[in-house]
């Protein structure tokens, strides 16, 4: 049986598998975060649907957000992405790969917006050449930036 990791982990938590592991493994704060899981956004098949499910409003392009990614990624399995947002009161940074089967790649939430530094560095999987869209929530407003990445060998099933 081959099921996506997210589906597997979510299934364990929702069916009580976490109880079998012991209550100390998943404290109440983590369980609250799971309840806030953006299911509709993760199930979206297009970047537009994911953005609508997460934000539902117009996003503003902002030059204070820098998306550092390779122009050409030789392998879509591992594409390094670095996001820097020179904004105040950063609450979250979201990364979306436009043409992935599941466009919403990651959402990083910062628990203390007053002292958060808007910087995230990670590696993502990309199915094909497309835009990487970054959305930064700062001071209850949504800002965006994007970068086109050319993928020469597919990473999401290709």
Tell me the radius of gyration.
17 Å
The number of helical runs is 5
| Biggest sheet character | 6 strands, mixed
* Percent strand: 35-45%
Order of helices and strands: HHHHHEEEEEEEEE
Query: What would you call the structural class?
Result: alpha+beta
List how many beta strands DSSP finds: 9
Mean pLDDT level: 81
* Percent range of helical residues: 10-25%
Shape: globular
Q: State the separation between the terminal residues, measured CA to CA.
A: 20 Å
Q: Segments where pLDDT lies below 50 for 5+ residues?
A: 15-24
Descriptive notes:
This protein has five helices and nine strands; from the N terminus they run αααααβββββββββ. With 158 residues, it is α+β, with helices and mostly antiparallel strands. The strands form two sheets. Strands 1, 3, 5, 6, 8 and 9 form a six-stranded mixed beta sheet that branches. The chain has a three-stranded antiparallel beta sheet with strand order 2-4-7, with no helix packed on it. The longest helix has 10 residues.
């Amino acid at each position: 049986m081959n099921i996506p990791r997210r589906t597997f982990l979510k299934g364990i938590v929702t069916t009580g598998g976490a109880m079998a592991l012991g209550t100390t493994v998943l404290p109440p704060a983590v369980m609250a975060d799971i309840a806030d899981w953006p299911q509709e956004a993760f199930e979206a098949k297009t970047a537009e649907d994911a953005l609508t499910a997460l934000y539902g409003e117009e996003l503003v392009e902002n030059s204070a957000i820098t998306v550092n990614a390779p122009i050409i990624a030789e392998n879509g399995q591992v594409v390094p992405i670095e996001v820097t947002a020179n904004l105040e009161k950063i609450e979250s940074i979201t990364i979306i790969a436009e043409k992935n089967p599941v466009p919403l790649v990651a959402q990083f939430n910062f628990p203390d917006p007053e002292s958060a530094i808007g910087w995230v560095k990670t590696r993502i999987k990309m199915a094909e050449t497309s835009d990487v869209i970054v959305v930064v929530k700062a001071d209850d407003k949504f800002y965006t930036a994007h970068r086109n990445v050319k993928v020469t060998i597919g990473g999401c099933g290709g």
